[in-house]
Amino acid sequence: MNDELISDFVIESLEHITEVEPLLLAMEDSGLPTMDQMNQIFRAVHSIKGAAGFLGLGDIQRLSHSGENLLMLLRDGKLEFHSSMADPLLVFVDALRQMLEELPEQDTEFPEELLATIEAVAAGESVASGSPAAPTPAVAAPPAAAGAEVADSEQAKRTRFGEIAVDLGFLEQPQLDELLSMQAERQAETPSLSDLALELEWLTSEQVGEVRDEQVIRRAMAQQHAAIEEMKSVPAKTASPEDSAGRSPGPPAKTPSKPKRVSGTKSESRNETIRVSVGLLDELMNLAGELVLGRNQLVQTLENVEVGGLKRVLQGIDLVTSDLQEHIMHTRMQPLSVVFDRLPRMVRDISKKVGKEVAIDIFGKDVELDRSILEALGDPMTHLIRNSMDHGLEETDERAAAGKPQKGQVTIRAYHQGGQIIVEIEDDGRGINPQRLREVSVERGLYNEQEAANLTDKEAIYLIFNAGLSTAKEVTAISGRGVGMDVVRSNIEGLGGQIDLESTVGTGTVVRIRLPLTLAIITSLTVSVGTEKYVLPQVNLREILRMKPEELDSKVETLLDVEVLHLRDQLLPLVRLSSALGIPSSENPASSSVVVLRSGEREYGLVVDAVHDNEEIVVKPLSSYLSDCKWFAGATILGDGTVAMILDAMGLVEHAGINIDENQNQLTANKLHDQNGSGAERRALIVFGNGEQEQFALPLCEIRRLERITLDQIEYIGHNEFIQHRGHSIPLLRLENLLPVGAAAQEGASLFILIPNTDHSDVGIVATRIIDTVTSDAVPESGQLRQPGLLGSSILGGKMTLFLNTRELLETSGLVNFA
Amino acid sequence: MIFNSEQEYRFCTFFLGGERYAIDILAVREITRILQVTPARGSKSCIRGLLNLRGQIVTVIAPAVVLNLPQQEETQAARLLVLKTTAELEARSINDYDSSEDLIGFWCERLSEVITVDGACIMQPPATSEGLQRPETFDGVLELEQGIIRILNPDRLLQASAA
Q1: Residue of B33, B47, B57, B158 to mutate, testing the A interface (most A Cβ within 10 Å of its Cβ)
Q2: Strand, helix or coil at A375?
Q3: Is there a contact between B102 and A620 if contact means CB atoms under 8 Å apart?
Q4: Closest chain A residue to B46 measured between Cα atoms?
Q5: What separation in angstroms does the CA of A682 have from each of A503, A690, A749, A779?
Q6: Between β-strands B79-83 and B28-33, what pairing exists: parallel, antiparallel or unpaired?
Q7: What ipTM goes with this model?
Q8: CB A587 within 8 A of CB A606
Q9: Looking at the partner chain, which of B42, B44, B57 has a beta carbon nearest the beta carbon of A635?
Q10: Who wins on pLDDT, A423 or A477?
Q11: pLDDT (tens digit per residue) in B84-129
Q12: C-beta separation of A618 from A521 below 8 A
């Protein structure tokens, strides 16, 4: 048997099964299947049976046949659907899937018991006899019609157009007869049937279009069928006549179910797709990247050549190349439904196991992600949902006591935000108790009681990501062993993502996963030591400190044989890239920068000579000859065509032989020492001034860039001010225009522009002076100051400081369009 | 690899450590100038680094280091012998050699000509070769007028670089 045919069959059948499963679940839920659902399920099982029969896969045919019988009885109303039937049907689907997955080997033991169960269900209350219901009356393709087609294909086509229109319910049979006779009368002008029908307004043009589509489908099917028949050159098996009735090019069988089946097939074939190997796509992606480089070189080479129209041609090539690359990237994207569609089934199974009623809502199935990320997302998702259902959601009686609806709720959401994909898993359960985690962390010896008590609630909750910590009082079959959240976290971080957690005791928990759109392309920062350039993934990046070498030297001291830098109130271990990798460093570099990197729990500073731009790079894997160089995460080709190594933050620090954990403890101790126990969150703030008087503060994490500009860089359009920034013009936001504060007090010819992290276009907030960056737990009090853009005020550095709300500021400014 | 005495073979010859070596041309994907190699710091000494070959990254290996040959000055004449990958060999049904999944290039000091020889002219490498490093990487020896040419087995040379 042709392996390719079988593998196509497996792929298609698995797709069918994927369609069936949610339908069964919906039927079980409602207890009242709609005709549509029934038809869809029946059709799917029927196609599997048909194809299996044709390919001679007896077991699959036999099993699907029994399932089909049961479904047919249900569909035809001879048997009433009952929720209890969902179980055997789901088991049936599973068994079918298993058999399919093991193909081409057919050594799966045939589930005789299941077959018996299904037959029993079918026979149980069936009004029809217990014997398998007779298959749909086999209607062989009427030879007359087929003959007519060969003899006079034109005529056959017209007939078929009419037949299909009748089939789809657009025309009545008498109307068709009338049309045909009219056509015969007007032989001279030979109007087409569709024109006639349109003329008489019996059909709308959409309907004609639909009929045409259908015609194309049927013809394709007929061709396929003919090809299959030819290949087989064996008389059709029992399943085939029925099959051919479904695909016959001749007039369709006059069974009642027929028109519906046809219209269904049509709606499913709306999306035209083909299967392409991922290898080929990768190759295309590679070539597109190469094309970009080629274009750059072309532009460089022809820069000084004066040929009329050359510039326009180059620009054209430029645009097309970028478009091409983008589209090829898109081919690797798949919707999240690939992962999400199997969740309802999983939730159902777990809910039966843990004895809790759980409803699952899923939003954002059509958000698209790179397939490699999707594949790796399944396991962490499963784990998180299990956690939510097992630990998060309370027992039914506990929920009742808390005044919550009996049915627990798990909500999955996916959406785009700032070039990333966010996936949220929310439950309305008991939440994570930080107190409990403090206790557990003391029991496990992670902290002493004092330290544990000093942890903020948020820090305590984050302990859940540590290996071996679980709040579950008992271990269940499903979860609670405390191995898990740490694995989930490392999985997500391995994908270049981040995981975040919010929990309120008594209300529920939200786990938020941030993922890059694609693994192949990452945002990165290029740094250099001597003449060598290296690339750092943006995800690991915390901040960049630029200082003169002597300034760096003065701030560094040696602790436990490791250089550490005093950074605000922390001690940051340092790794010098030049010595870590043995790079001949340039003598007396004019400047040096410390790039603060974070990898998992650890933070350290990487000393480099210079920091260049961030750019989007295509990650290329390293050959096996470099696989033991753990300090490299891959390689990439820079804009100038040279290869640059991508540094692995974790591997690099291990290679440098620095045990950060030891230092980190020291750091944590420092941090705890600083903590005044108020429990408020400490955060880094940038303090700046604009007018004569006021002092403002913004959380540092909300600022993406700080730029110094000169006044003459400001350009005007009407009353609006703009600056050019990295090839974009960005509008400037003046605080005095939005808030009741003093006008900018200009000092000298330069200004500072704070560019916040926005999901949309950039805006620059104008400041005349940058005062300091501080870490503070000050909570702004709103008082009468509260107004859009202003959170309130607090004392920082002995001076009253206005705390700004970036998002509100941008919103009220009207400079950003929040879609 | 055993050479059939009734068949003709074509070899790409080049210089390593001042002496002539050869690799079966069937195993070679292409030969390219060496423009800019990015060092992979901290890797094995025989790995010179990575090179961009029209958008694909080639790992550059120095056979001279693997074979412990005397270092020669680097000149403009240096060339990279890029090997076919396993997949490329398979696609062309070349079964005499295995290769790597990744693109690998051998750094050579300078290229010599491509020669065609009868299998009968190829001599087995001496079983005990005094001073010869990595004898397992040699498939045979050619004695020509210009001198001796050693035939390298690309596959074994790769294994020796990985070891």
Answers
A1: B57
A2: helix
A3: no
A4: A625
A5: 19, 25, 35, 9
A6: antiparallel
A7: 0.90
A8: no
A9: B57
A10: A423
A11: 998 888 888 888 888 888 899 999 999 999 999 988 888 887 766 5
A12: yes
